[in-house]
C-alpha cells in the first residue's frame, strides 16, 4: 500500500481519491508516521483471519508439560561435571 506525506496528498488529492475509488487504498503520513488510511466507502471489508485456536482438537498438551524432561535437565545442570 502506497504512503504519501501530507503535502503530497494535499497537492494530488483529487488523483489519489480517484485511485482509492478504483480499489487502491493509500496511507497519509506525517513525518514518516502513518496517520490515516484512505479507502473507498464501498470497498469490501477485509477478511479477518481467526488465529487463536486454529489448532483446536488437532494437538494435545500433556498435563505434565511443564515437567517434561525435568530429570534430564536436572542431571545436565547439577549432575554432570
Automatic annotation (TrEMBL):
<comment type="similarity">
    <text>Belongs to the phD/YefM antitoxin family.</text>
</comment>
<dbReference type="InterPro" id="IPR006442">
    <property type="entry name" value="Antitoxin_Phd/YefM"/>
</dbReference>
<dbReference type="Pfam" id="PF02604">
    <property type="entry name" value="PhdYeFM_antitox"/>
</dbReference>
<comment type="function">
    <text>Antitoxin component of a type II toxin-antitoxin (TA) system.</text>
</comment>
<protein>
    <recommendedName>
        <fullName>Antitoxin</fullName>
    </recommendedName>
</protein>
<dbReference type="InterPro" id="IPR036165">
    <property type="entry name" value="YefM-like_sf"/>
</dbReference>
Amino acid at each position: 500500500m502506497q504512503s504519501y506525506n501530507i503535502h503530497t496528498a494535499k497537492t494530488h488529492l483529487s488523483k489519489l481519491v480517484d485511485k482509492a475509488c478504483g480499489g487502491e487504498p493509500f496511507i497519509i503520513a506525517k513525518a514518516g508516521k502513518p496517520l490515516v488510511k484512505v479507502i473507498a466507502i464501498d470497498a469490501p471489508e477485509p477478511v479477518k483471519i481467526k488465529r487463536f485456536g486454529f489448532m483446536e482438537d488437532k494437538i494435545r498438551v500433556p498435563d505434565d508439560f511443564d515437567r517434561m524432561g525435568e530429570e534430564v535437565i536436572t542431571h545436565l545442570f547439577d549432575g554432570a561435571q
